[in-house]
Amino acid sequence: MNDKVRYGFRGIFILSLLYYAFWICYGIKCAINGIDSGWVAPALSDGTIYYGWKGFMEGIGVGVAVTFMAAWYVPLYQIIYLIGLGIIKHKEKKAKRRDT
After folding, report:
1. pTM of the entire structure?
2. 55 with 35: CB under 8 angstroms?
3. Contact 50, 33 (CB under 8 A)
């Protein structure tokens, strides 16, 4: 595989990790500022605001929900990239053993 193509895919993979950094930052924001207990169904909320660890976990829960509903292609790309990288590394190692 061409090195420029490989570096391009690696760059996209690294940029896709920023998606998770965003959700971690959102979880920290929820831990500090709080998050409503009814973020899934606001009409069913009892008005409880979660802070700290519980708020962080609720913020991460929002990220998981958004990922499953709208941004499923980010983890899909990462899985395909890692599988492809593993196959390429395996083929290179096999070719190197054959040459020696």
Report:
1. 0.79
2. yes
3. no
